[in-house]
Write a structure and sequence with these properties.
- The protein is α/β, with parallel strands linked by helices.
- 33% of the residues lie in helices and 22% in strands.
- It has 9 helices and 8 strands.
- Strands 3-7-4-8 form a 4-stranded mixed β-sheet, with helices on both faces.
């Protein structure tokens, strides 16, 4: 990476980053998503439209460095994609039914069909005989909170109003799909730890 910047509106995070010598950009408290926060950083740093920006979200602090490289290269190598991101296979029912674990469905070429906090796809026949569900089929994917996009696309993204689907699921990437843009999804190159959404996640 040419540059690593921590974007935050929290002075505690600013202090922690500066304590280890990192670069931090303080942003507005009014942003509704990480992508909107990035747009402010792009403006402040005058980053060119053709630069690839990788956004590692705060709830995914343990992503291996090779996965950051992977998501950037996937964007560069898939010309139809406006964004790229990663996923990991789900093998446990507990994770599949956890609304904090975002599920993603893709088409045959690896482009996202939908992201949801619900357990998708719903296994009608496989689950009707299980109560509770303890066995799940292969093929379920959990989205990992990392994105790559061109700086110019981020500017386009923030020009769109938030959508109803985005607000219902509280998932900013649904705004991209709503506007007919493509998000490339690949299974991560190296295993990441689970996302950290709660104090219990951090303990695990």
């Amino acid at each position: 990476a040419k540059q690593v910047i921590v974007a935050t509106d929290d002075e505690r995070i600013e202090a922690a980053v500066k304590a280890f010598g990192g670069e931090v950009c303080m942003t507005s408290v009014d942003h509704n998503s990480g992508t909107e926060r990035l747009a402010e950083v792009i403006d402040k740093y005058n980053i060119g439209d053709d630069e690839i920006i990788v956004n590692v979200q705060g709830d995914e602090p343990l992503i291996p460095p090779c996965n950051i490289t992977q998501v950037a290269e996937n964007l560069a190598n898939n010309q139809d994609a406006s964004m790229s991101t990663l996923a990991v296979k789900i093998s446990e029912a507990e994770e599949l039914f956890n609304p904090n674990a975002v599920k993603v469905l893709t088409d045959k070429t690896g482009y996202a069909l939908y992201f949801s906090r619900a357990s998708i796809p719903y296994d009608r026949d496989g689950w009707k005989t299980q109560n509770p569900v303890t066995k799940i089929k292969d093929g379920y994917l959990r989205h990992i909170g990392i994105y790559a996009y061109y700086a110019g696309f981020i500017k386009q993204y923030i020009s769109w109003e938030p959508t109803e689907l985005e607000n219902i699921e509280s998932l900013e990437q649904l705004r991209v799909l709503y506007h007919g843009k493509k998000i490339h999804v690949a299974v991560e190159a190296a295993e990441s730890a689970a996302g950290v959404d709660t104090p219990e996640d951090l303990e695990r």
